[in-house]
Write a structure and sequence with these properties.
3 strands; single chain; three-stranded antiparallel β-sheet; elongated; alpha+beta; 73 residues
């Protein structure tokens, strides 16, 4: 059985940012990784917030199903 990456089953992408007050939040929900990265780059360049990363979003039930199948070990 081939091990899968979480990004392979991501239904969407979110950008994690730290806002000027120091709080870290997940901002947005893009179905396309390229769009999420573009928003992250624009936000970072404008210095509106500090981008920490672009992360895959998977549903809780989808993740549980994949974990139970032993896809990520």
């Amino acid at each position: 059985m081939r091990t899968r990456r979480i990004a392979d089953v991501a239904g969407a992408w979110t950008v994690v940012v730290t806002v000027p007050s120091g709080e870290t939040v997940a901002a947005g929900n893009w179905p396309d990784l390229i769009e999420a990265r573009a928003w992250a780059r624009t936000t970072n360049q404008a210095r509106l917030a500090r981008v920490r990363g672009v992360l895959p979003l998977v549903s809780a039930s989808g993740l549980t199903a994949e974990l139970e199948r032993g896809m990520w070990q």
